[in-house]
Amino acid sequence: MSILRTLAVASAIAVSAYITPPRAAAQSPSYATHGDATLAAFINEALEGNPRVRAALLETRAAESRTAQAATLPDPVLSFTQHMLGPQTRVGPQFSSVSVTQSLPWFGTLSDRRAIAAAAAAMQSESYQEQRAEVVRQVKLAYYDLAYFDEALRITGEEEQLLLHYEALARARYSQGFGQQQEVVKLQAGVTRVLNRRQELLRQRTDFEALLNVLADRPVNTPVPPVTIGELPAVALDDEQLHATGLGERPEVRSARLRIERDEHGVSLARRRYRPGLAVGVAWGNVLGRRDDPGRENPPPGNGRDTWSLTLGASLPVFRGSYDAGVREAAARVSAAEEAYRDAVNGVALAVRSTAFRIMTIEGQLALFERALLPQAEQALRATEEAYSGGVTGVLELLDSEEMLLNVRLGLARLRADYMKALAEMERAIGSPFPEEEGS
User: Fold this and answer.
1) According to the 3-state scheme, what is the secondary structure of the chain?
2) How far is CA 230 from CA 363, 389, 416, 417, in A?
3) What phi-psi label fits residue 35: left (phi over 0), alpha (psi between -120 and 50 degrees) or beta?
4) Of the candidates 70, 173, 251, 404, which lies 20 to 30 Å from 158 by C-alpha distance?
5) Residue 398's CB: how many other CB atoms inside 10 A?
6) Are 78 and 133 in contact (CB under 8 A)?
7) pLDDT tier for residue 437 given thresholds of 50, 70 and 90
8) Superfamily for the 35-72+105-277+315-430 domain
């Protein structure tokens, strides 16, 4: 009883280990975090907990298990024959027989099947890597959008305080007889406008917070602390180098190459159908001793001796039209795989080119905002504040200058987030960390 219990426990452990989704194997990261520990934690959590990543990993394990199955011979066939009226022989009647037959595919068939299964498993492994890369991309995009909304909320909060300060100044001017009540009302409307914008920003932030939680397989309402973008990493954009990296590292390209390899083995396997399949068997026959009167009186030599026999067989590949069609099908699959590879290569070229141009464009816009637009908007607001305090200009000019500075600051925050998102898109395009981090 203890032996049965031990076997049952061992079986349960084995089954549990098989059906429990394993964690991702330790490997060097294929993504950059730019020293952002919070982002790195989100990515690690997503890669370990995201259901799509875990499902892809389990599919990879399943595909790897099919390789051993493909290289296995068919099960031998065991046959038992019981003679109702056994045939008579010189040494006695045959009573029953047992035979074992083993089918043997033509030489090289099993190796082709193994190669096809191995290539399919490698393709599934690339699909797993593709799913990981896509989840990393989605986490980064949501994370940097969240960073933008947090920065926008901070900016609009400061803008609200500034407008409240202007409102207090307008009230003081009105109480001293230098201003009009209409100025106070317009400034209050400006405060209301900023408050409305903050509410819209909060709504959008909630959406991206929920998305980030879903990607990491966390409760959708889990609070995410404010996110900030540090110093923007500098990048070197070499289209040829980036394209070469993408051809070597992007999972879709590697998977396309493996598909060609798999289908080429499929052509080889289809051609082997023209060859016969073999079969070998051995049989044992149970022979009873002679029971007739002559046999009892004078038993023959070897009376009741059992029989042994060896069987060799081969299938007859006569339906050549079917085999021809199979070869044409396999060849067409190779051609389709080659076209899919070309498409994957073109996809890398397109993604690298468009993303590189986007990065360069954002770099130019950032320089324009930081070196010209932002200083100009700040200077214009200071000049308008002084003019308003001196009664030279009105509240409308003050509100215009304030809104212009607000839009410039929000635009700069949006560009910073878009720059980091573009780096994430380039990383996905080439299948390698971008830009490369020190020590990686």
Assistant:
1) CHHHHHHHHHHHHHHHHHHCCCCCCCCCCCCCCCCCHHHHHHHHHHHHHCHHHHHHHHHHHHHHHHHHHHCCCCCCEEEEEECCCCCEECCEEEEEEEEEEEEECCCCHHHHHHHHHHHHHHHHHHHHHHHHHHHHHHHHHHHHHHHHHHHHHHHHHHHHHHHHHHHHHHHHHHHCCCCCHHHHHHHHHHHHHHHHHHHHHHHHHHHHHHHHHHHCCCCCCCCCCCCCCCCCCCCCCCHHHHHHHHHHHCHHHHHHHHHHHHHHHHHHHHHHHHCCCEEEEEEEEEECCCCCHHHHHCCCCCCCCCEEEEEEEECCCCCHHHHHHHHHHHHHHHHHHHHHHHHHHHHHHHHHHHHHHHHHHHHHHHHHHHHHHHHHHHHHHHHHHHHHHCCCCCHHHHHHHHHHHHHHHHHHHHHHHHHHHHHHHHHHHHCCCCCCCCCC
2) 16, 37, 10, 10
3) left
4) 173
5) 24
6) no
7) low
8) Outer membrane efflux proteins (OEP) (1.20.1600.10)
* pLDDT classification of 57: cutoffs 50, 70, 90: very high
Q: Which two tokens stand for residue 291?
A: 């029971």
pLDDT tens digits, 138-174:
999 999 999 999 999 999 999 999 888 888 877 776 6
Question: Which residues on adjacent β-strands are paired with residue 286?
Answer: 96
- Angle made by CA atoms 49, 50, 54, in degrees to the nearest 5: 85
User: Which residue's structure tokens are 């590189």?
Assistant: 356
Mean pLDDT of the chain: 87
Only one residue has tokens 């986007």, namely 358
Specify whether the CB–CB gap between 260 and 344 falls below 8 A. Answer: no
Angle (nearest 5°) at CA 141 between 138 and 145: 140
Residue 52 vs residue 295, higher pLDDT? 52
Q: Between vectors from CA 398 to CA 394 and to CA 404, what angle results, nearest 5°?
A: 145
Question: Given the DSSP bridges, would you call strands 92-104 and 278-287 parallel, antiparallel or unpaired?
Answer: antiparallel
pLDDT digits (tens, 9 = 90+) for 269-291: 999 999 999 999 999 888 776 66
Backbone phi, then psi, for 221, in 5-degree steps? -100, 15
